[in-house]
UniProtKB/TrEMBL annotation, chains A, B:
The keyword Transcription regulation does not apply. SUPFAM superfamilies: lambda repressor-like DNA-binding domains (SSF47413), RmlC-like cupins (SSF51182). This is Transcriptional regulator. It holds the Pfam family HTH_3. Keywords: DNA-binding. Coiled coil: none annotated. The keyword DNA-binding applies. One of its GO terms (cellular component) is cytosol. GO terms for molecular function: DNA binding; DNA-binding transcription factor activity. Residues 13-67 form the HTH cro/C1-type domain.
Length: 183, 183
DNA sequence: ATCTGCGGTTCGTCAAGACGAACGACCGGT
DNA sequence: ACCGGTCGTTCGTCTTGACGAACCGCAGAT
């Protein structure tokens, strides 16, 4: 999470406003707030109320949270085999981090390669996490430890990651894409 | 986007606080705000300033935006072939919606099957969109129309979706997972 | 039954945000 | 040059959020 929320908001507001091509006065009018207020907000000398920010997000037609999060980058490729990986000690599975939260988003994207053998048991992590898995090839037993599901190519599973869960390859060369949302 | 932000915040605050198991007084103390303030917020009779909300999100150790967004569900499977799909007129590609924004999140998850033929040209959609693609099988030319990239199994590409972009299968039976983030 | 500690709400006070008017700067038309 | 229009900032006023003390309710201990 960024350090100073008010600075972030100030920048976000100006950025979004200019993107839409509205003048400060015009935006203030549409949002139903005083332009003086908006002026102060964009110069980071203010501590807006939720309602004020909300009005602005509506007027700008952007999700509310867009105003409280920093900016972001562009194109990117990671070839199969490249990229930062994490592997278990016994190398039954390898996860490649494709896209980590930039810089304070709420999902990580992994490519998982696994071989049959001991299952990958995961302790529950941060509350509110949801994991999405799509199998590319092979077969796997995935999901909550108490009620795993067997899936094959093209199958999709989602489950809460804040309780114990598993990923166990059932065939050699099992590959899957995983999205981990942390909200 | 939900209707009444203050109601949502009120519920979020109570929900998160109880999840962590803190009393109202205790949380207020840790966040450095008056417990009366927190009390009013949880009863939706208030219009908190950003700083106040920020202090609470820090004390609760949850991302800020968690407090301004509604709640969410549990486990889910979509078998290969199932699920709502969208296809092009000439059926060169089929997209299956695996996980749509629940209810106002910021990403959609698709499974894409495509056959060689005319490329899937996409008009730029909502500004701020980023698309992530991981190829499961086959080969494809993906990315910005001006500079597409050729990718194969296991390859990953991400690109801004708010400018013209393509997805063109180069081999029969090309399958890919796509995450579309709308922020 | 009484006391003490902690849960949450209500109320009066004060500081801070939101407002609107006024201001200087800039631009295009006459 | 002058005028009307807009753009963004500054300033004084009034509304409103945040604070803290007082308050009610409920356990558990004495």
């Amino acid at each position: 999470m960024a350090g100073a929320p008010l600075e972030v908001i100030a920048h976000s507001l100006r950025r979004e406003r200019e993107r839409v091509g509205l003048s400060l006065s015009e935006l203030a009018k549409r949002a139903g707030i005083a332009k003086s207020t908006l002026s102060q907000l964009e110069s980071a000398s203010g501590n807006p109320s939720v309602e004020t920010l909300w009005a602005l997000s509506v007027a700008l037609d952007v999700p509310f949270s867009r105003l409280v999060e920093p900016a972001r980058p562009r194109v990117q490729i990671i070839r199969a085999g490249d990229g930062p990986t994490v592997a278990s000690e016994r190398a039954h599975w390898v996860a490649t981090l494709l896209a980590s939260c930039p810089p304070s988003a709420r999902r990580d994207l992994y490519l998982i390669s696994a071989e049959p053998g001991r299952a990958k048991q995961s302790e529950p992590h941060m509350p509110g996490v949801i994991e999405h898995v799509v199998v590319c090839s092979g077969r796997a037993r995935v999901g909550l430890t108490e009620e795993p599901v067997e899936v094959g190519p093209g199958d999709y599973v989602a489950y809460p990651g804040d309780v114990e869960h598993v990923f166990e390859a059932l065939e050699p060369g099992t590959v899957a894409v995983m999205v981990s949302e942390h909200w």
